[in-house]
Amino acid sequence: MADITSGLIGLVGVILGGSMSSLSNYFLARAERKRFARERIWDLRREVYTKIIAKMGEIERDAEEDYLNFTDERGGDNYQGSKAQDASLKAIVIREHELREMILHNRIIIGNVVAEWYATMINELGELETNRPAYEPYEFSKAYHEIVGEQFQKVLTLAQRELAVSG
After folding, report:
1. Which DSSP letter does residue 112 get?
2. What is the pLDDT of residues 56-82, one digit of tens each?
3. How far is CA 57 from its chain centroid?
4. Rounded to whole angstroms, how far apart are CA atoms 96 and 148?
5. In degrees, to the nearest 5, what angle opens at C-alpha 51 toward C-alphas 124 and 156?
6. C-alpha span between 17 and 131 (Å, rounded)
7. Is the pLDDT of residue 7 over 60?
8. Distance CA 81, CA 22 (A)
9. Interacting residues of 37 by C-beta distance below 8 A, sequence separation 6+
10. What letter would DSSP give residue 77?
11. DSSP assignment of 121-154, as one string?
12. For the chain, what percent of residues have pLDDT higher than 90?
């Protein structure tokens, strides 16, 4: 009888030990999957923010180029309505469209904060466009560049905060 009892105790120990080992392996694997998912999402967010920042940088440079082309050294009054201005404005519109598409296609990754930033920028630019008749072409171009420059800095700060990157 002692042999049976001893055997049963050993069997129960093996079963409990195996169950505990399997259970701990399950929880370790689950925690590892969650960590991997968090890291992957962070990588995706970083990639999207990098593209948004790069596109905003392109828009800001194009806007600066447009506004500087109104100076006498670059063309002055001859710039307005020129083929060079048409090409510059077309490039800005294309980049704005690309930025909009990036934000729309990656909304689930970047969240509401970026969508709110983008909506604010579009509203500011819309107000500027609504008031275009009140501006001389040079002043309008300068105001556009200033808005885009401010928004570029805001999205940089936003990305640093959202990705927990020190600036």
Report:
1. H
2. 999 999 999 998 888 766 677 788 888
3. 13
4. 11
5. 55
6. 76
7. yes
8. 74
9. none
10. G
11. HHHHHHHHHHTGGGS-HHHHHHHHHHHHHHHHHH
12. 48
- 52 has a pLDDT exceeding 60: yes
Residue 148 has what pLDDT? Answer: 97
Q: For residues 112-129, give the mean pLDDT.
A: 94
Q: Return the amino acid letter for 86.
A: D
Residue 1 has pLDDT above 70, yes or no: no
- The CA distance from 88 to 33, in Å, is 48
Fill in the amino acid letter for 54. Answer: A
Q: How far apart are CA 52 and CA 72, in angstroms?
A: 33
Q: pTM for the whole thing?
A: 0.77
Question: What is the rounded distance in angstroms from the CA atom of residue 102 to the CA atom of residue 47?
Answer: 11
What are the backbone dihedrals phi and psi of residue 160, each rounded to the nearest 5 degrees, phi first? Answer: -60, -40
107: nearest Cα among 52, 25, 33, 59: 52
30 touches 67 (CB < 8 A): no
